[in-house]
Amino acid sequence: MLGSTHGTLTTTSRPARVVACGRRPGPMVHGTASPAGDDLDVSGRPLRSDVPDLDRFFRPETVAVIGASETEGRPNTRITQQLIAWAKRVGARVHPVHPTRATVFGLPCHASARDVPGRIDVAVVLVGDPVPVVEELAHCDVAFAVVFASGFAETGSEGAAAQARLAAALQGTGTRLLGPNTNLNAFEPVRDDLNGPAIALITQSGHQGRPVFSLQELGIRLSHWAPTGNEADLECADFISYFATRPEVGAIATYVEGLKDGRAFLLAADRAARHHVPVVAVKVGRTEVGARTAATHTGKLTGADDVVDAAMRQFGVIRVNGLDELQDTSALLARARPPRAEGIAVYSISGGTGAHFADLATAAGLELPVLPAAKQAELHQWIPDYLSTANPIDNGGHPVGDWRGRKIIDAVLADPSVGILVCPITGPFPPLSDKLAQDLVDAAEKTDKLVCVVWGSPVGTEDAYRSTLLGSSRVATFRTFANCVTAIRAYLGHHRFTAGYRSPFDEAPRALSPSARKAQALLRPGEQLSEHAAKQLLRAYGIRVPREHLVTSAAAAVRAAAQIGYPVVMKASGPHLAHKSELGLVKIGLTSASQVRDAYRELTDIARYEGLPLDGILVCQRVGRGVEMAVGITHDPLFGPTVTVGLGGVLVEVLDDTSVRVPPFGEDHARAMLGELRGRALLDGVRGAPPADVDALVETVLRVQRMALELGDDLVEVDLNPLVVLERGQGAVALDALAFCR
């Protein structure tokens, strides 16, 4: 973790403004203006995230505590005391609300929220049944309502209905709701004696934020904590959008069990990427057990994990596995300056330590450049000749105890190929480790490059660790090799991502293309299209299919084959045929009229026997050999239409070698999808096969994406399999296609 002087934004008291009780004027939806037409895509979805005015939540002028208590032993009493203390820190006036009390802790008490004079910035609801209270708040001038009570969507359908009532009560009023099933985390004291960029924390489970909150005790500044609970209204995405615009926020750390709205989350991540603010997330739901548990905790839909994972990568969200990784990675990203170079130098007093760290770093894809011969010779002025200075750099131990130690560190940092210096110290060995720690801190103060230290001692009470390393604002200190590697990879990846970031939403189509209008006429709501109809859909989007004719007689089949040219392929075409080969409804390599006539009779006989309705028989061009791929559209419950590419034919089912993206995305992501496939080498040509036409494949993926953007709400699934990618320069051809309409 990075240590020392990082603190929170201090607030001062401000005079309260008096506003008459009543609804806010103006057409508002959930407290934000509706997006303008230019900020909507072809399906009417927003292309920008709204940023709620959360300043009034975190820095209110007036706070109403509904259900306030001073009775000893009652939970509401402790909560009331904490809210009064928080309000004092942020300069807000507290109005206790209770129907039978005249005062609470010496403050005048009001019978209802309607009796509170003027505007209420934050109304905290402490009653067992909050629904009637929230419905009452809808008629007052309240900016934010906070509901702690549980028993809502996390409990099942009845609770979900009650939660819907909460949200509906405030719809269109301008009042925003935090919760239900939230907690006091937003009102906990944060240190205001720390300086520098801070971590803003968002959690759907309050307890899971404790490790990041505790970083303050190690000198890491925390600016905000947003516990979103069940997210009946305000959600994780709202807070990401807000924190991304705050000048004091250096990184956003979030614990996510599920997403309320996948699109809103991506728009918020897009806003953070535009502002170069890293978002680090622990996302639950990698397994069925985790997904089921999340649903019973906050009532969240966790989503298909491969889609969530791909969507996060696509928009620069850094997904980590554990809370320890969340705190270490967030701390590094919040504090560290942009890298001067991506090369990592590993400096240690032991060859074994250096080799161990180098192994982990290299396996993670990090670069350990070999230092130039001149630099190695320079280092050998202070390091014995028999020790390696190539990188990792092994000093043998003794040089760290005298003037040579600092010379070595400065020389390594001076190399232009080195952007990060990592010094793993596996255990304390005073006085050498004390001197080494101090040299590293002193060198870090003089350089604009990142200095990382791994302090491996499990004790953590050593002065070199507690005072020297954690006392430095310029050294990133970790406790494990793995967390150091994870954080550095995220740090380099984030700066690489944001340096060239172009928002895909900027290039999203705003109007339907002529292709979409032509394709819409082909759709059949609630039905599966026949192969012939599905291929017409592809043709409308300029996706290449074989030359083919749909025929309804043997004679017409013969004429079609002559037109196309032998050999031909014949297939049954009907609205309920998903796996034609297994039913014997595909005939290939037909070379004569007699074979075509026989094939027509056999295909129609099988279909009649199986009770399968046909719209005809397809007589198709036989396409040459190539790499069989699959490209498709599926509808994800969180993110809507998604595009998948993978190895085709039976391999897509056997190997499950696929990559997925959420539209909109550009050519760079289409090419990156191919790079993520284990079978990517097939496209480059193996065992003497020529390279495939990757450009044509990428173009097909982008055309399928356009279809997903324009018709995604009307399509459940589209499947191009196999899509044969021919030799470079010859294109790609969809031999078969399925389409299911909504």
Describe what this molecule looks like in 3D.
With 742 residues, this protein is α/β, with parallel strands linked by helices. β26 (715-725) and β27 (732-734) form a beta hairpin. The radius of gyration is 31 Å and the shape is flat.
Indicate the low-confidence ranges by residue numbers.
1-34, 293-302
The tally of beta strands, per DSSP, is 28
Rounded Rg: 31 Å
Could you state the oligomeric state of the chains shown?
Answer: single chain
Q: Briefly, what is this?
A:
The protein is α/β, with parallel strands linked by helices. The strands form six sheets. Strands 18, 23, 24, 25, 26, 27 and 28 form a seven-stranded antiparallel beta sheet that branches.
Walk me through the topology.
Layout: H1 55-58, E1 62-66, H2 75-90, E2 93-97, E3 103-104, E4 107-108, E5 120-125, H3 130-137, E6 142-147, H4 157-170, E7 176-178, E8 198-203, H5 210-213, E9 222-227, H6 236-244, E10 249-256, H7 262-274, E11 279-283, H8 288-298, H9 305-314, E12 318-320, H10 323-335, E13 343-348, H11 351-363, H12 373-379, E14 393-394, H13 404-413, E15 418-425, H14 432-446, E16 450-455, H15 463-469, E17 475-478, H16 481-499, H17 514-520, E18 528-529, H18 531-540, E19 548-551, H19 554-564, E20 568-573, E21 586-590, H20 593-610, E22 616-621, E23 627-636, E24 640-647, H21 651-654, E25 658-661, H22 667-675, H23 681-684, H24 694-711, E26 715-725, E27 732-734, E28 737-741
Parallel strand pairs: 1-2, 1-5, 5-6, 6-7, 8-9, 8-10, 10-11, 11-12, 13-14, 13-15, 15-16, 16-17
Antiparallel strand pairs: 3-4, 18-28, 19-22, 20-21, 20-22, 23-24, 23-26, 24-25, 26-27, 26-28
